[in-house]
Amino acid sequence: MKKDLRLKSFAGVVLAAVSVLLLSSCSSVDAAATVGKDSISVKTVESSVKAILDERVGTDTTQMQLSTGSKLSQDVVRFHLIALLLKDVGVKYKAIPTEAQITARRAAIVKQVGGEASLPKALVGAGIAKQDFRGYVKTMLISERLGQIAQAAGVDNTNGAAIQALVIGVANKQGVKINPRYGKWDAVNANIVDKTPNTAVTTK
Predict the structure, then answer these.
(1) Which candidate among 8, 38, 54, 189 keeps its CA 20 to 30 Å from the CA of 71?
(2) pTM for this structure?
(3) For the residues 111-128, what does the mean pLDDT come to?
(4) d(Cα 174, Cα 8) in Å, to the nearest integer?
């Protein structure tokens, strides 16, 4: 998988930035997660999950390790949560990309994976719903821009510590809540995890 579509490795960098957050369930059963007054609806999560599963139909996934069931739902909530947190940070630090920039990067990624015909398989392997691809590109650009801002300010480790500090500041101020149906918030590792530890590897 091309590096621009490695959602998990990207998420790993950004998730490390989000710690010491409020641990509690969402106040609304219709919310999968909330950040301050903004929320990610259960409907949004279910729509993304359905799209991901639909996109796997007709795709050769024999060499892919793909999340299913509750693990897939967790992955989708995590993606939308990261996107929401980084959007808020991006607004604060004027790091939101233009539509033209998003379009240009999307085109570059499509070319990198072999064209539009190859994109569906690439998205399946990355666990990204087609409907969320543009949002993923936007999130990636925000992260890159924040790194550039940190670098210009002379901050060390611009891909990790600098973005971590920015995200933590916004997240702590607004507060994050996770619907318990998707697990719980692990403040130490800044991740959504199962309520009961499960060491089993979930694949296709």
Answers:
(1) 38
(2) 0.79
(3) 96
(4) 25
